[in-house]
Structure formats: structure tokens, C-alpha cells
Amino acid sequence: MTTNMAKTLSVGIIGAGPGGLALGIFLRKAGFDDFTIFDREDGVGGTWRINTYPGLACDVKSHLYSYSFDLNSDWSRLWPEQPEILDYFERCAQRYQLAGNLRLNTEIVSARWQPDTKTWLVRTADGDEYTFDIVVSAVGVFTQPVMPDLAEEEPFTGTVMHTASWDHSVDLAGARVAVLGTGSTASQLVPEVAKVAAKVYSVQRSPTWVLPKPDRPYTDREKWMFAHIPLAKRIYRTRLWLRSESNISVIENGSDKTQEFKQIALRSLEATISDEELRRALTPEHPLGCKRLVFATDYLQTLNQPHVEVVSSAARTLRSRSLVTEDGTELDVDAVLCATGYAAADYLGQIEVVGAEGVALTDVWRDGAYAYLGMAVPGFPNFFMLYGPNTNVGSNSVIFMLEAQAHYIVRALKYMRRKNKPYIEVRSDVTSRFLARVDKWMEGTVWLTRCSNYFRAANGRVVTQWPRSARDFWGMTRWFRSGDYTFDPPAVRQPIEVGAQTAVKR
Fold this sequence. Notes:
The protein is an alpha/beta fold. The chain has a five-stranded parallel beta sheet with strand order 3-2-1-7-20, covered by helices on one side. A five-stranded parallel beta sheet has the order 9-18-10-11-14, covered by helices on one side. Helices cover 29% and strands 17% of the residues. The protein has helices at residues 2-8, 18-29, 47-50, 82-95, 184-194, 220-228, 232-246, 256-272, 276-281, 299-303, 361-364, 398-419, 428-442, 470-477, and strands at 11-14, 35-38, 102-103, 108-114, 119-124, 129-132, 134-137, 151-152, 159-162, 176-180, 199-203, 210-212, 294-296, 308-311, 315-319, 322-325, 330-332, 335-338, 352-354, 383-385, 392-393, 425-426, 465-466, 485-486. It is globular and about 70 Å long.
């Protein structure tokens, strides 16, 4: 009976990014061969395939931004750039023979639970339908670009594009360009655009804290050691992991680590920007860490160049050949580049997920997304998530978190296979207790200070961030506890208690 279950338990995975690929690899190793990985793009890699803007790189060191089971000796530099990261995940998909399980150029628009058959009906944008015993969302949080709300007084004759939809046919050589945003994307994009553009306006609502990113290529000797000395790259990766874990207190408001990083950022700003007025415009008022930290190699140096101008007023209006800011400043531009991020808190916003009793996940999450361990939601049986609510780690690598979640999901499916269970649903009381713990851990974090960031839902609750260390998350997901779940449809589902998180003054 168990063998039959192993052959018939089918899994649909939405997303062929790092999380979806890791889950596919772990499923195959565990003997689950009936799984399909869908992706709307024409290849694997997720955000590293979608985003191709100039200067794109990772802000986690290369040896840590890779699978623990597939360490790469060939990283060219400390912080990897987009083509190299994409190549790594493409090679992983090939090495673990996932080609036969991939359905590319296939966008999933809905997943609906079928209570009579205890299966999920998954529908594509083309109208095709698939049925699975288990569905796992691996779409991540950086999938829905946010465009600025620009009123168009006149038809703009130039180019407007979001960095997530970069058009490489647009020639910016000699152009007048406005870059909207001051986050990680802008810090990578502005230096590259400034190399070719005649004029660059860095248009900011508010400045951000910038920490130095002393990037460099690995030496031939280092790469030889990684390739030929047993355990060299594993030891090196472990050191990077431990160093990241040691920085976890940066999420605590007013901690010594936060003050240390703030002083580093201020010293870097003072050493780079000699003009007092510009330095003042680039000095944030919000606490360090309440927004995503920016690590940059030459961003501040670029803002100091004569043909680059910092505009401290948000973009408001487009005219035929210009951009007008909220303070009335009119900038003559040929292109407006929007480094304005994603709707990260709007989990699964582009996919209609309907669970038991016909309830949509968007309705359940009306006041903000939540999930047990970031993976399971009561009322949505046989459904898991990777990189779900409250799993964006404040320090360390998301790849580590994704691996922990993928392992956990496979353990759950192995339990179902072993016990011949066709149904699994996380208990409401378990979820409520977990959320209460998350809210308790969130107290005192810098994310609850009064500052605008993409971490929070409309009700103010931090829904993206994990308020503990990566080690703690690994410890909580290392074992699958069957007592946290029910394996039969509950007669009555208890309401989930989601507490409020109160913002504190800076």
C-alpha cells in the first residue's frame, strides 16, 4: 500500500526559482518522481532570469548564496553578478535532471481545492488544467513590480520602464535619465547608467543607509583551493554563515550592532561626499535596518560625479519630455527608470488560490499574510509555500531558509506516504500559537519603528520578515511534527488569532 502511495502522490510546484528547484531535487532524492515545476518564464532561475538590469548582483556572498548540497568552486568574485547566478541555477537544474519535470512558458493563474477527490485543480493562463495531490507555491516575494503613481499631463515621448522589465534595446548613451528609488536596485543601477548617460537624476523620496561592499574577484589561488582541497569551500561557506548569524542583532532597534553599522555608514558617507548639503540630503532619518540594508561598491562615489544630481523630492508627473517632482522641480529627461521594488507583502497576489469551503486565500489574508512556519495555512489542505510569510531572514542567506523549508515539506510528504494519508492540513490552534510567538519575537525589532518599508501589510503587521536567526528557523523545521497537523478534514475550523503589532517611535 505504501509503495502505491509513493507512485501516485503527485506534486505541482509553482515557480522554478531557487526554492522550486531545491524542492524538486529533494523530492527526487526521496523517491517522489511525479512532480511538475511550472514557470511563466522560458527557463529556470526565478528572479535571476526575470531581472537583467545593468549592474544587477547579489548582496549575499556567492559561496553562501548557493545550495549547501551543490557548492560551487567556480564563483568568480565575492558577490556574484546576475549572469553567473543564473548560470549556477541552470546548471543545477541540468545536473539533477529536472528537465522532464519542467513546464516552462506556463503561467499558473489559479489553484482550487477539490474536496470530493482531495486534490488541487491548477489552471494555466492558456486554460490548460492539471490535477495534483499536493501544490507548493514557490513564487517568492519579488514577482509583482510596483510602478510609481505618475500622472501623465502630456503623453511622455521618452521611455519609462521598471527594472524588472528591462529593455536592452533602449540606448541610454548620451541620454538624460531619471532613476526613481534609493534601494538596492538603484544602488546597482545608477553607477552603470552614469557610465553612459549625459545626465542622471537620482530621484529620492528619502535617502537610505548605505554600507560599503568591498567586492573583488577571487584570486586564482583561492579558486584552486576551492576546487582541489577537500572541504575548503565547505569550511569557507560555514565561516560566512557563522559571520552572518553573528550579525543577527542588527534587527534589534538600538542594538550595539546597529550602532556599529550606522557609524560605518556615516564614516563612508563622510569620506565619499565632501559637499555638506549633498551629504545632508543623503543622510537618512530612519533607523538603520528598518528598511532593507543597501550594500554598494560605488554608489555614493557616483552620486558625487558632476553629471549626477540628487533630487530630494518624489516623482509626481510626466510631461512630454520631462518629469516633475512633488516640489515642482521639472527635469528634462529622455528616460525614467523605476527602481521602485515589488509588492513583497502581497503574497500570491497574482494567483487565485481557493481552499476548503471555497474560501480564497486573498480573503483570508485581507489584513495581512500569515502561515505556520511560513509554509502552511489552515483551510488550505495539501498546500505549502516556500518563501512564504515571515521567512525573509534579516541576516544570512535566503537560500539557507529555502533549503530548510524544502526539506520540511519533503518530510511531510514522506510521512503521508508512510502512513498512506491523502490529506494534510495544519491545525488552527497550532498556527495561532506560532503567530503569537512571531509577534512576541517581533517586539523590539527595528522593523516596528515608524518607517516606511515593504515588510509591512496595510494593517501594520510585519509579514515578510523572520524575527529570529536562520539557525532558529532551521531548528524549528528540522523535524516534521505530525501532531501539528490533521490528516482528516476537520468538522469545525477554529478562527485564527492574529495579533496586532504596535509601531514604536524612532
